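Hello,

Our lab assistant flagged a job as stuck in the queue for most of the afternoon. It eventually completed. Since we weren't sure the result was trustworthy after the delay, we are filing this so someone can double-check. Below is the sequence as submitted and the structure that was eventually returned. Let us know if re-running is recommended.
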Amino acid sequence: MRPLEGGERSVKKWVLQSALRMTRAVPPAQVVWIGAALGAAFLARAPFAFADRPFHDEPVYAFVAAAWLEGVIPYREMWDVKPPGLFALYALAQALGASPLASVWILPLIAACAAALGLCALGRFWFANLRIGALAGVLFAWFSLASGGARGPAVFLAAPFVIWGLCLARGAAVSHAFLSGLSLGCAGMILQSSAFEALFAFALVCLLGPRASTRARLRRACAFALGGLLPALGLGALLGAQGAFGEAWEAVVLVALARSVHHAIGFLDGAGLRFIERIEPFAPLCLVGAAWVFGLARKKDAQARASAWIVSGWVCVAAAGALVQRAAHDAYMLP
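-- returned structure --
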């Protein structure tokens, strides 16, 4: 093994020091809770590495990504309504050495672990209680199996970006606002309905945080907007260079979202009832969560009340996003 150069030593030293600072920042008792959430996520997703066959639409995503790496232009030579960020994730996994079939189960595993870590961070910074976030991480892993089994749909891959984006939205620094926007911008390039959470996070960036001047809040808002636009600008420029921007805009925006407005009422009448039937097993858990949020809202502690309002707002925008996404799917499938 060759000796490390000076620059490489500096980078290695910085990485080790950063890891030590993060370890010291988390008490040993809380490390156990983080390990439990990560362990649940890993145990829930890792066994599907031995599945006999891929599930649902994931092989299509992997195939489009593999063809993209070979020079085939998506939306122009292969049509789909999914945003380009979804195919870019699969292409990145394959470019790093994973086979198309392996990327089908590797990405959901990484997403589950990243979401578990993000929920732990939410519990610590939103509620000053990491155990709440760890419990949410365990339930997230369980819900991913109950609702989709071995599947890794776009909503599952976008979840960690949404979670981390909302967590960073409560940070005080301009860099936190930028990273929050960047994370939610990536989520929007994977799942269109993540735009609802992005708007909600933008409101958090503007309204919450430390008491500061209007200029400071404006800087945070601009940083969030800049971070949120970067993924779209980057992928848009790439598709534009390949001559497929117009086709991508029509498929991802016009077909997937514009037509969904006409199917939203029908979704509420029919498919919405089926959706309610799917989440019926989680009704007791939802009621317990609602009672807990209501208890937070009645407390005199300002942070507890703010957290209750944030959770309630998140549930509302997530429900609106689920409605639009389901209606868009119906508009795509129906003539």
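-- support follow-up --
The delay was a queue issue, not a problem with the job. The result is valid. The first helix runs from residue 6 to 25. The two ends are 61 Å apart (CA to CA).
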